[in-house]
Design goal:
With 89 residues, the chain is an alpha+beta fold. It has 2 helices and 8 strands; from the N terminus they run ββαβββββαβ.
Length: 89
């Protein structure tokens, strides 16, 4: 889906807890998405960089995954919806 941050557009997807495959497809390689804590529904988004170090982020329900120049960032649903409006394509 495409979203516009007044006046910028971004690609983003809301993590519902049931759409990990969509998140994996959205991020693409080299990012991985794995269950970290089944009790809390937490997932890890991670990758191994060329130098062998890792980038790891905790993903929970109702966070938007937003593509940006650094790869991606996470935003709370309420914050995201207050700053962006959906773009009809």
């Amino acid at each position: 889906m495409r979203w516009r941050r007044r006046p910028y557009e971004v690609e983003a997807i809301l993590f519902t807890g049931d759409n990990t495959q969509e998140i994996k497809s959205f991020l693409g390689d080299p990012w991985k998405v794995d269950l970290a804590n089944p009790k809390d529904g937490q997932y890890l988004i991670w990758r191994v960089k060329k130098d062998g170090s890792m980038d790891v982020t905790v993903l929970v329900k109702n966070k938007f995954v937003v593509k940006c120049s650094e790869g991606f960032c996470l935003m709370d649903k309420e914050e995201f919806l207050s700053e962006y409006e959906k773009v009809n394509v």
